[in-house]
Amino acid sequence: MSFADRLVLWLHIGFAIFTIGPVTVAIMSTPRYIRQRNLVIVRYLYRTTRIFAIFSLGVLTAGLILARLRSDFSKPWLTVSLTLFVVSLVLLVLIMRDQHRAIAALEDAQAPAESADGAPEAAGPAGAPPADAAAGDPGPAQLPGGPDGASAHPGHVERGRIASLGGVVALIWLVVLVLMVWNG
């Protein structure tokens, strides 16, 4: 293996370690903070997902260059790995769309709660949030199937899609990792 091959291999491994892990953690953490209605953290996780998803293209690029240098494109495991990685990138785009929708739903839910002077209407003594909101525990009207029979929790649908698609993406990356280690 030449120096160029080794350098590209190390770049490929480095990109995989430093991008795939953080984007997976950001995706898997998002549903919890949507449920807690923590808009600041959900925005941060959305930004983190976007940044690391873009940098994860380095994994694909370095992998393509390495396959070209080693003339490995004819091997079926590499074709499967590349296809699965592209599928995971498409799913990442869908996850980012749902994160953005959840942010919009949380912003819409917070807008009516503010009065004309900008202070929350439901604040307790000395401006403290209500006890159930401070604990992150949704009240009965905020749970799916609450008193009005509908899902009143903002981002409820997006939270479920992010969790399920995030699990699929993590599983895909695990399969790609096994293929790379087993055959590489």
Architecture blueprint of SSEs:
Layout: H1 3-35, H2 39-55, H3 57-70, H4 76-110, H5 131-134, H6 156-183
Helix pairs in contact: 1-2, 1-3, 1-6, 2-4, 3-4, 4-6
Written overview of the protein:
The chain is an all-alpha fold. The chain has one domain. The chain has six helices and no strands. The longest helix is centred in the middle third of the chain and has 35 residues. About 15% of the residues have low confidence.
The profile of the biggest β sheet is: none
Low-pLDDT sequence parts: 121-135, 139-150
Sequence of secondary-structure elements: HHHHHH
**Helical amount among residues, as a percent range?**
over 70%
Can you give me a brief rundown of this structure?
The chain is mainly alpha-helical and 184 residues long. It has helices at residues 3-35, 39-55, 57-70, 76-110, 131-134, 156-183. It is elongated and about 65 Å long.
Provide the descriptors you would attach to this structure in a database record.
mainly alpha; 6 helices; about 70% helix; about 180 residues
